[in-house]
Specification:
heterodimer; A: alpha/beta; Transcription Regulator spoIIAA; 5-stranded mixed β-sheet; B: Globin-like; 5 strands; 9% strand; elongated
Chain lengths: 136, 284
């Protein structure tokens, strides 16, 4: 049975979809990805769809689901490299993928994730600073 | 037995041609600049000879006959080229009607018996009328082709994607946004985003005369598609009247970054890209 590989890169999980997804494959990906997020404690998920030429409403929903699920497990999702035709189709289907971050290519996507993590760390540091201040 | 008029035409080929050219030259005094007399002569000769050569007993009362295919082909190419050259419909029509006139007057010279003349004239009349109808059809089709081509050109020209800065694209929209145009706008914008790797696109709608709910929906769609690609979209050039209609129609544009002028949209884009544009310090 076909499987979409999920690669771990530091704090992030990398998924490149190289084949056209059919429903079962997409559902498996959703389940695998969520369990990987919890196992590796990932801070970000990057999904590369640059070689996907067909996305239907089901796939659009799965992408949205993955983003929401990861979000509640404290990981941001970035979808990168969407083809113009696919973007137009999704919009026409009424699925603008709210809550999913997007980037033009993998490089920009990684930058975006890194900046998110930096922001979070800064926030935490500030909180820690506050804590130390209050204890002094 | 061979039809009488066929015999006459085949015998009098050259005379009919001369007559036809004569009638045309009287008709077309106004339009001598569109086609030279020689060209007109060659054109007419080709058509007339194709017509007479293909005429036979079996097809004289049937313009749909396969024998006339070459005649119809010549006619269509003449009328299409006339449509493109800018002839008026009247001139194109007269071209065929003058042929009919020439044919009928030749018949009246040759046939003395009034009853036969009438019968033959009716047959020729009918045949030529059906040719002129098909000429008109192709003439109008030629004109329509011109119109379609121009429409295409206008759509292409009116949606240029401009590279404003490294990573910033601008798309000034001039004219009303309908569904088919939105499609063209969206496609060319997204394609350009992929090609240039830009992360910000500015849609300038100062040239859009009116924004109704449909246009607004098209704009929102374009913005959503741009976001899906991983770029941010700014809408600029919102005139006061447009702001009024948008609010009166209850359209929610709060999810979209909107700016009044292209300049302020560019400024916002610079800030988003962490760019700074400064006046050069004068060296003292």
């Amino acid at each position: 049975m076909e499987k979409i590989p999920i690669l771990r890169m530091g704090h992030f999980l990398l998924v490149t979809i190289q084949v056209d997804l059919y429903d079962q494959l997409a559902e498996n990906l959703e389940a695998d990805l969520v369990s990987m997020v919890s196992k590796t404690n990932a801070k970000g998920v990057l999904i590369d769809v640059s070689s996907v030429s067909i996305i239907d409403s089901f796939m659009g929903r799965i992408l949205g689901n993955i983003a929401t699920m990861s979000k509640i497990m404290d990981a941001d999702t970035v979808v990168v490299g969407m083809q113009p035709a696919v973007a137009i189709t999704l919009v026409e289907l009424g699925l603008p993928l709210k809550g999913v971050y997007t980037a033009l290519n993998v490089e920009r996507g990684m930058e975006l994730l890194r900046s998110k993590i930096l922001l979070e760390e800064e926030d935490q540091e500030e909180e820690n600073d506050d804590d130390t201040d209050s204890t002094e | 037995m061979k039809n009488e008029s066929i015999k006459i035409f085949q015998k009098k080929k050259q005379a009919v041609l001369e007559k036809w050219i004569h009638i045309q030259s009287q008709d077309q005094i106004l339009n001598n600049d569109l086609i030279t007399n020689e060209d007109l002569r060659i054109q007419s000769e080709e058509l007339l000879f194709a017509f007479i050569d293909n005429l036979s007993d079996s097809n004289i009362d049937n313009a749909e006959s396969r024998d006339f295919e070459s005649v119809v082909d010549i006619l269509s190419s003449i009328s299409i080229s006339r449509a493109k050259q800018g002839y008026s419909p009247r001139e194109t029509g007269n071209y065929i009607y003058s042929l009919k006139e020439a044919l009928l007057s030749t018949l009246s010279e040759e046939i003395k018996d009034p009853a036969t003349l009438y019968a033959q004239s009716m047959i020729i009349n009918k045949l030529l009328d059906s040719f002129s109808t098909s000429t008109f059809e192709t003439f109008i089709k030629g004109r329509e082709d011109v119109i379609f081509r121009q429409t295409d050109e206008i759509t292409q020209i009116s949606t240029p994607v401009i590279r404003l800065w490294d990573g910033i694209l601008a798309l000034p929209i001039i004219g009303t946004l309908d569904s088919s145009r939105t499609q063209v706008v969206m496609e060319s914008l997204l394609q350009e985003i992929v090609e240039t790797g830009s992360s910000i696109a500015i849609l300038d709608i100062s040239g859009v005369p009116a924004v109704d709910s449909l246009v607004a929906q098209h704009l929102i769609k374009t913005v959503s598609a741009t976001r899906l690609m991983g770029a941010e979209c700014i809408i600029s050039g919102i005139r006061p009247e447009i702001a009024q209609t948008v609010v009166h129609l209850g359209i929610d544009l709060s999810t979209i970054i909107t700016k009044a002028t292209l300049a302020s949209a560019l400024k916002t884009a610079f800030i988003m890209l962490n760019l700074e544009v400064n006046k050069k310090q004068r060296v003292k």
